[in-house]
Amino acid sequence: MIEPRIIPCLLVAARRLVKTVRFREPRYVGDPVNIINIFSTLAADEIFLLDIDATRERRGPDLALLAEYAEETMAPLGYGGGVRTVEDVQHVLAAGAEKVVVSTVAGEEPAFIDRAAALAGSQAIVVSIDVSRGAGDRPDVFVRNGTRALGRDPIEYAREMERRGAGEILLHSIERDGMMAGYDLDLIRAVAAAVRVPVIACGGAGERADLAEAAKAGASAVAAGSIFVFQGRNRSVVVNYPTRERRRALFA
Q1: What is the domain-level CATH number for residue 62?
Q2: What pTM value is reported for the model?
């Protein structure tokens, strides 16, 4: 088995690094530049940086800040937040990101993915599928930071995004975000089995063993926030990332 990528998924609000719980209650955890630099030093496979204010504030990507972040890391950087046009995709890539992560525009204007993939190549386009389970444990896709339901089944939606040109799926469980109680393994299995592009599991990792469980469920990569910035029950802020030796043991 190819060793899954491990991706710190970092959230930015008001140019500060925060961590949410179920997409709410953002808690300040540090300066993005410093923490990105630390993850780069620790040889993170990739880093995802998501501006959670951009869509709510109806603005585009903060390109100046993105360029500053990109200078701080040797790891490939994926960036999301406020992307609405193919020009935004161009500008984000030109500012130093290697991948563009989109959610709301994909859900509200699916043909955008066709245009973005034609422009930048599928390898640069990551569609974030944010999923919440409603009545009867029926999963639905949400956009706009988890505030608007699309009425779409995640499996069917993932297939459409793949068909339109998405190179990867960032599969994010809203209920498990920040809870540190494990990934939604059933959701990961279902979506990973339905598409051929890599699925990145996100939402719920509380210990290193959770990363391995997500990989066993079919994830090609595992993304997390809390486990990489918090330590202990009191959630003291301690930036960490597994060494190469620990990763080999984890995924053995």
Answers
A1: 3.20.20.70
A2: 0.95
